[in-house]
User: Fold this.
Amino acid sequence: MAQTSKTVLTLDHNAASALKEGINFVRSKEDGRCYIIYKDKQSFRACKNQCKHQGGIFMKDIEDLAERTVRCTKHNWKLNVATMKYVNPPDSFTQEELAIETNESGGIQLIELSPPEPWLSDPRTPEELEYGEVLITYLTHACMELKLGSKRMLFDPWLTGPAFARGWWLLHEPPANYLETLCNADLIYISHMHSDHLSYPTLKKLSDKRPDLPIYVGDTSRPVFWYLDRSGVKLTNVNVVPFGVWQKVDENLRFMILMDGVHPEMDTCIIVDYKGHLILNTVDCTRPNGGILPRNVDVLMSDFAGGASGFPMTFTGGKYTEEWKAKFIKNERKKLLNYKAQLVKHLQPKLYCPFAGYFVEAHPSDRYIKETNIKNSPDELNRLIRKLDASINTWTPKPGAVLDLSRILKDSSDSKAIFDPPAGTKLYKDSWEFQLYLDEINSAIKAKIFQHKEWIHFYFQWAGFNNYDLVVRVIETDEDFNAFPDGYDFYVDFLDLSFPSRRPEREHPYEEIKNRAGVMRHVVKNGLLWDDLYIGFQNRLSRDPDIYHHRFWNHFQTNLPLTPPDWDLFLQRVNGGKENNNEN
Assistant:
């Protein structure tokens, strides 16, 4: 469908004339929503009073005497309303503007150019479902099996091994027949490239038995399977599909992949349509489809837990005391819980299921993270949703539990609508094969490239990030973040991509990053994204001043080159041009 416009606020001549120079917070009398209007003489700019980061509300920034900046009450992000660019963190997002129209009488209107609602194309009238025709089975984390008539569809199979190098491990024990379930699927949807959704250990098991099983991903700017050719996993039927277009599976089944409004370069969500019944899975999207979503779907699934970041657990120094961290985490989890509950209330699904948050920092060396990184409870969220609207059914799934959609829709009290696993079934994991995966990661420690300190220059030149005023000190450490024996400790000045022996004399922003040596060298050697270090809790950070450098982290977490460093070329150079036949 074409883009649509909607008038969200109308000010008559008197109200428009009363706007002062600088920032104005204006509330709509129609729906109570607040908007920000910036006036500069006779020109205006406007936006919603909503932070693009995680939906917080802006307030006046008392530190800005020029009255151009507003501050988010959630994470202190700052928006320059005169430019619609975020100034804290610098060089990050641009705020979506509302169009402004003036009329002959001197009044103004704020116009929202809405994202398209492509699911409204070729709408279907829901048909009656037979018992057992649509079954939803929870496996682990974000992995659901959907039986839709004769077809079986899987979401985001992470069923074995760790995610984010060695930082995340499965909380739930997958059903005993998980491999059979995986290999018997007719199609798989993988939402994005993060390893708790795109699990190469899981897909390796699939490729050994069914390498041609159709897998569908969205057409993100960084390909979901950018690492496939180097992963050792052989998959022959990966399909990249455009956003907002129905993909037909059979006469009754189709699906549509949508992008995230905040992270369109990597995040996606999906709508599944079976005989007119809609299942919406927003996965990890911060603002799926720009915040425009279908209401009254049959099933809504979303993340709920929080804690999927190194902040603030891995930060040290300054304000980052244990008391501050505990208070911040508690407040953030509460905000997320309330946001999810309000979103569900607004969208009015017939059934809501919280998922994609069932991970644990299980390795003993990450005990501090596990104890500090308190996550939301799915039961608590579901209780809050029912308190807000008792008409919405909720489901906290157990591994192997099956929901019969037809029964839920006909009678939510039907005792046969949900089949829980038999009594005595093991639900939570208590062993994770740590050594198998850690040995593989730590094998990079002895890679030949790290015998030559020149790897530092070669790697960061390959990474391609410079012309940014930031000095970073990188320190290799052991498990406890103490200096690694014979490890590297170096500075990178990204203003000119130089490698000084000490901090420059000029005034400069500074970050100190302590990385576990095994994971760091694994990431460097294979040209992996730094999510393994940051989201995987494998580093400790301090910064001066305490500012989030969006351009730096976005580059190393999202925008590194798709092709790896040419370590063979590197070894030839350091060996004086001699051919190298050893493992790099």
In short: The first helix runs from residue 13 to 17. The first strand starts at residue 4 and ends at 11. The mean pLDDT is 94.
